């Protein structure tokens, strides 16, 4: 039912409007609840009856307001929609909907679909059968003679997606011509582009009934070329209409990651425009497609198959590599850098890192553990590319495509019969087919295969005397490829040539494929789809029934149902069919006279129930506020002000608390500043003593030296990372216990990386040869041999010149790692063991038998210890100064 | 100024000293009592006067007389200290005001009571909250303020007391008759301070309104409040008249005070009423 331009989907709901007067009466009769007022003399009002009590009514404006809300609600339930053309006389005859469903409609597909749905809705109101003609070829093609109900047509429209090829209108006209009958109305939802069959279709349509053509405001763009050049990625776009226009093109990887973009600008009436995306070559090489940004159509995408694959390649580094330019891996590394992700490592590491392909330079036998892992990896589809060399020639294993004759063949040397050989043209079934070997690339040495074993292997390349240069053989689901020359330039010029890059890339096309490298793949065969494009230009996995395309048909294939656009692969080489041809023509559609023109979306019904529901909801919400207001329950506005005043500081405080405290983090990071460290023994008294002692020592260092440590840090041997602390003081607990395994490992590592541990047994002057605390403390530690420290030791010279090392007692004993044991660290001792209880002596306010002098000397010793920890044996030559001075004196004399 | 400083500090701390300050300010502006600065029964020295023949020898102040040729009599100041009792209505409806910006009736009543107490204390009288210990002297008002803040007891009026009842007097007339008769029977007299909120006087309500007495279940629904205005005024006047009649008959003259008016005239009127009693 329509009223003016408004169409009601459920007109029966309007009956409820008849109930409005009843609602009016009801609303009028139920007054809002009374306002409440506190009033102490309420007792005086009791029993007071005013005359108007019984005539109390809801105020008129409130009733009007509520009646309006109710009316809106009823109208909303009637599902109104704004349909400007709905009032047209709906003719009862058959309706034909013609849709151009090629990629040329994809950029405005939702408009196309909406227009089609509107046409279906109109036919539905007239109870007319709907016929649908789709102009893009499909397999099987839709029969335009099939009558559809409105709901059937609607579900068809909703499922309909644009095809990744252009409409074939001549074929559509043929299909339509085979059907019978006139149409009361023909709606042609066109892509607005001319093609060879457009006139034929238009004539056929006009013959069958009145035609309305819906044309888009802007027709589709197409990308007709795209290529990787040394300067980046270049692409050319064309269009049908004129006028100023700009678009952006973007280069993307196969996964859709954007690599770069550039602006594409059409001049006033130019039909084509080019743009270049500036990219470094190694990035440009990864481009798998170029597309017009924002243009969702298959024609706006150009596939660049070369960039589609970027395998993860492991370079097997056998260590002991010498200089760069004679290193064998250097050439493979440089060749593959732009085209593959590379990682160097041992075979085990690379397989663990899930390399898709391994490049193994000259090697003799592979270690048994690596060998089994490698075989398992090959069985799962790995690609092993091996190179020959003296070691392989000497002693080969059997992980090779062919059996090798021992030794190598030298060509063109002084003692050789043969001359240097160039590379023969590649056989047609080789993955290298199409590459042209330059004549100046020659091989000087090669390994030779047993002729019998060549039967089982594929020969991918030969030298000019037909001796194999590259052979390959499957291994399980994987593939082993052998270059019969070395990976470096020693045996041939191949690694120095550009051909090497192409050969490696084509070899790597076999990398990491789940289906492995079968015989068919190696020898060519048809092109099999790997990714297919839909009408919107998105690449998807091909359906299970996607047909391979024979090689001879592939080169001339254009986008069609039999040869859908997308990425294909043959013999490890990627190729693509694009939706738009390189010579694609886009021109505006010329409509014959008598065809009514209309835009897309011009017949759209705009549902309005939502607006009505929204308005009713707003009114009801307002009504709630009004009811509250009439009851006097609304809070007074001024009351918010004090609340806000109170809340504001709170909010500010919360914000401050939320702000990250960067300084706190910096303070917690021990690597930012030097800290002296002591081991927490668990005895609070000893720990406090250590902290105080080191604190005093820190102060001393700051006062007298250029070392300015932060506050001392207590560490837990088992848990804390010791590496930030160059000096670790470890006082013996009263009852020393053996360290836990974790602590031992931690401490071993600390000593190994160059830390200095100072163990203080604190038992100087104590008699009795009982248990030695150091023995227990260091039990299990990888402790080096010690020797007693004399005044000749670097500790006695590092900052102050010391003759003794007084601690809490005057005479102490100090032992240090012997220089022989510390030879790996240039004689710098990592471990000191003493009994002086130095921390007690260092601490402020220590009462010592020797008074302030003893404390001073003790602190000097502490300074020296820290200096040794920080500077190692820098001052060791001080030891020799007397001798040096003496010698200088002798010379002068 | 330690005392005023202390009061200021207390004013910040709670309502009590604030009321005290209000009261002090009010009392400072009031005319006050002219005390009974005459000779009479009492402890404190008042003056020496010449000995008269009718005094007899017993009254001669020998110590003073010995310094001169004349005989002197030592007179003491008359001490006729009476006690003024205060009673504030504890009803929640009394501690109410229609406008949150206006003081409640209770607070205004307390201000007036304390101001009156200050005046009386200056005159040497004792003041106290009904049911509590009365006091004289400098701290009496402070003490009274404290007592008035506390729980009000409906203790029996002491004999021959002067009682100032502060209330809105909206309780039924029978309640007040009983209370005032009991006081009058014990020989008390005094004054009634009728404190009213302007909303209670003017009845500014409109529309359908449910009136509820604070703190009680008494409520009344009026269909259109504006039409009940005259009727309410009539009933209020009748009730006030009944209270005034009752008070006048039993020796408690009534004073009406609106909280939107200044308290000074009410205080002056009250002081005049009470000073008659204390003369």
Provide structural commentary.
- The complex is a heterodimer of chains A (893) and B (279).
- With 893 residues, chain A is an alpha/beta fold.
- Chain A contains 24 helices and 39 strands.
- Chain A has a 7-stranded mixed β-sheet. Chain A has a 7-stranded mixed β-sheet with strand order 34-33-35-36-39-38-37.
- Residues 514-523 and 660-667 of chain A have low confidence and may be disordered.
- In chain B, strand 7 (209-212) and strand 8 (219-222) form a beta hairpin.
- Chain B is 41% helix and 17% strand.
- In chain B, the strands form 3 sheets. In chain B, strands 4-3-5-6-9 form a 5-stranded parallel β-sheet. Chain B has a two-stranded antiparallel sheet with strand order 1-2.
- The radius of gyration of chain B is 23 Å and the shape is elongated.
- With 279 residues, chain B is α/β, with parallel strands linked by helices.
- The A-B interface holds A 31-32, 34-48, 50-56 and B 91, 93-94, 96, 98, 168, 170, 172, 197, 199-200, 205, 207-214, 218-224, 227-228, 231-232, 235-236, 239.
- Strand 3 of chain A pairs parallel with strand 7 (209-212) of chain B, so a sheet runs across the interface.
Into which percentage range does the β-strand content of chain B fall? 15-25%
* Shape type of chain B: elongated
Calculate the mean pLDDT score of chain A and round it: 80
Q: What is the number of strand segments of chain A?
A: 39
Number of helices of chain A: 24
Secondary-structure element order of chain B, N to C: HHEHEEHEHEHEHEEHEH
Distance between the termini of chain A: 129 Å
């Amino acid at each position: 039912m329509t009223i003016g331009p408004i169409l009601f989907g459920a007109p029966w709901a309007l009956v409820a409007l008849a109930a409005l007067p009843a609602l009016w009466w009801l609303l009028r009769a139920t007054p809002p609840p009374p306002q409440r007022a506190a009033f102490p003399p309420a007792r005086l009002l009791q029993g007071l009856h005013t005359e108007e009590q019984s005539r109390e009514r809801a105020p008129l404006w409130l009733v009007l307001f509520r009646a309006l809300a109710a009316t809106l609600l009823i109208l909303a339930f009637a599902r109104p929609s704004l349909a400007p053309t709905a009032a047209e006389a709906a003719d009862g005859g058959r309706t034909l909907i013609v849709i151009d469903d090629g990629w040329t409609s994809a950029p405005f597909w939702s408009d196309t679909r909406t227009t089609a749905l509107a046409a279906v809705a109109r036919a539905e109101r007239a109870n007319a059968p709907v016929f649908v003609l789709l102009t893009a070829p499909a397999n099987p093609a839709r029969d335009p003679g099939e009558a559809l109900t409105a709901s059937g047509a609607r579900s068809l429209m909703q499922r309909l997606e644009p095809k990744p090829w252009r409409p074939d209108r001549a074929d559509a006209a043929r299909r339509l011509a085979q059907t019978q009958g006139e149409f009361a109305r023909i709606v042609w939802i066109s892509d607005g582009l001319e093609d060879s069959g457009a006139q034929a279709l238009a004539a056929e349509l006009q013959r069958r009934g009145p035609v309305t053509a819906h044309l888009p405001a802007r027709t589709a763009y197409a990308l007709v070329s795209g290529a990787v050049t040394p300067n980046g990625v270049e692409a050319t776009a064309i269009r049908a209409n004129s006028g100023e226009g700009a678009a952006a093109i973007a280069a993307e990887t196969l996964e859709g990651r954007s690599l770069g973009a550039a602006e594409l600008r059409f001049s006033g009436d130019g039909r084509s425009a080019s743009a270049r995306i500036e990219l470094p070559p190694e990035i440009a090489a990864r481009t798998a497609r170029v597309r017009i940004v924002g243009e969702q159509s298959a024609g706006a995408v150009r596939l660049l198959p070369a960039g589609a694959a970027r395998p993860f390649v492991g370079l097997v580094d056998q260590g002991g590599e010498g200089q760069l330019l004679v290193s064998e891996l250097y050439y493979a590394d440089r060749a593959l850098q732009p085209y593959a992700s590379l990682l160097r490592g041992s075979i085990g590491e690379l397989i663990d890192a899930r390399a898709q392909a391994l490049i193994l330079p000259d090697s003799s036998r592979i270690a048994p553990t690596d060998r089994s892992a490698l075989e398992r990896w090959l069985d799962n589809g790995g690609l092993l590319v091996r190179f020959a060399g003296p070691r392989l020639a000497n002693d080969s294993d059997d992980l090779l495509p062919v059996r090798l004759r021992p030794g190598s063949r030298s060509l063109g040397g002084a003692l050789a019969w043969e001359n240097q050989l160039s590379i023969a043209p590649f056989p047609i079934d080789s993955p290298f087919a199409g590459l042209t070997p330059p004549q100046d690339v020659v091989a000087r040495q090669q390994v030779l295969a047993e002729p019998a074993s060549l039967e089982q292997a594929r020969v991918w390349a030969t030298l000019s005397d037909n001796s194999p240069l590259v052979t390959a053989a499957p291994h399980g689901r994987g593939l082993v490829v052998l270059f019969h020359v070395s990976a470096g330039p020693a045996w041939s010029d191949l690694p120095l040539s550009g051909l090497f890059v192409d050969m490696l890339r084509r070899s790597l096309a076999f990398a990491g494929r789940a289906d492995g490298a079968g015989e068919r793949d190696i020898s060519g065969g048809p092109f099999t789809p790997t990714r297919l494009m839909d009408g919107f230009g998105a690449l998807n996995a091909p359906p299970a029934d996607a047909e391979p395309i024979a090689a001879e048909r592939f080169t001339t294939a254009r986008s069609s149902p039999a040869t859908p656009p997308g990425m294909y692969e043959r013999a490890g080489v990627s190729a693509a069919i694009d939706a738009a041809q390189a010579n694609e023509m886009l021109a505006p559609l010329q409509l014959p006279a008598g065809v009514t023109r209309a835009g897309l979306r011009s017949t759209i019904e705009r549902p309005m129930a939502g607006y009505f529901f929204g308005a009713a909801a707003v009114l009801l919400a307002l009504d709630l506020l009004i009811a509250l207001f009439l009851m006097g329950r609304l809070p007074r506005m001024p009351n918010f002000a004090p609340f806000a005043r109170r809340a504001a500081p709170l909010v500010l405080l919360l914000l401050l608390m939320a702000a990250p405290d960067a300084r706190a983090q910096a303070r917690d990071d021990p690597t930012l500043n030097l800290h002296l460290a002591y081991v927490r023994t668990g005895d609070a008294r000893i720990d406090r003593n250590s902290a105080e002692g080191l604190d005093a020592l820190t102060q001393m260092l700051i006062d007298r030296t250029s070392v300015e440590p932060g506050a001392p840090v207590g560490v837990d041997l088992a848990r804390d990372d010791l590496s930030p602390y160059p000096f670790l003081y470890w006082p013996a607990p009263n009852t020393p216990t053996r360290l836990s395994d974790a602590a031992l490992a931690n401490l071993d590592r600390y000593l190994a990386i160059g830390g200095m541990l100072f163990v203080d047994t604190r038992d100087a002057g104590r008699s009795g040869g009982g248990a030695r605390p150091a023995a227990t403390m260091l039990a299990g530690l990888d402790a080096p041999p010690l020797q007693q420290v004399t005044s000749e030791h670097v500790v006695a010279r590092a900052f102050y010149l010391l003759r003794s090392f007084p601690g809490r007692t005057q005479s102490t004993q100090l032992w240090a790692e012997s220089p022989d044991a510390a030879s790996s660290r240039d004689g710098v001792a990592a471990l000191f063991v003493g009994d002086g209880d130095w921390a007690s002596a260092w601490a402020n306010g220590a009462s010592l038998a020797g008074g302030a002098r003893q404390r001073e000397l003790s602190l000097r010793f502490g300074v020296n210890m820290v200096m040794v920890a920080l500077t190692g044996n820098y001052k060791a030559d001080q030891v020799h100064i007397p001798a040096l001075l003496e010698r200088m004196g002798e010379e002068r004399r | 100024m330690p005392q005023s400083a202390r009061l200021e500090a207390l004013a910040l701390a709670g309502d009590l000293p604030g009321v005290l300050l209000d009261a002090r300010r009010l009392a400072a502006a009031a005319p006050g009592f002219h005390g009974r600065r005459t000779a009479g029964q009492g402890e404190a020295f008042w003056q020496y006067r010449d000995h008269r023949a009718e005094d007899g020898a017993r009254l001669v102040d020998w110590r003073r007389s010995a310094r001169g040729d004349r005989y002197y009599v030592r007179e003491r100041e008359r001490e006729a200290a009476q006690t003024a009792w205060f009673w504030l209505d504890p009803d929640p409806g009394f501690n109410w005001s229609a406008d949150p910006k206006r003081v409640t009736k209770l607070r205004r009543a307390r201000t007036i009571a304390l101001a009156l107490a200050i005046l009386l204390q200056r005159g040497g009288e004792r003041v106290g909250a009904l049911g509590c210990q009365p006091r004289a002297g400098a701290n009496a008002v402070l003490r009274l303020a404290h007592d008035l803040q506390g729980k009000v007891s409906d203790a029996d009026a002491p004999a021959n007391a002067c009682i100032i009842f502060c209330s809105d007097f909206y309780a039924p007339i029978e309640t007040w008759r009983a209370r005032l008769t009991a006081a009058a029977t014990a020989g008390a007299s005094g004054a009634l301070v009728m404190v009213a909120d302007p909303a209670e006087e003017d009845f500014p309500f409109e529309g359908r309104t449910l009136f509820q007495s604070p703190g009680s279940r008494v409520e009344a629904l009026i269909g259109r409040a504006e039409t009940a205005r005259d009727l309410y005024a009539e009933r209020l006047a009748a009730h006030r008249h009944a209270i005034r009649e009752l008070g006048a008959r039993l020796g408690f003259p009534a004073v009406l005070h609106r909280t939107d008016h200044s308290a000074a005239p009410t205080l002056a009127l009250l002081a005049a009423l009470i000073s008659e009693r204390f003369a």
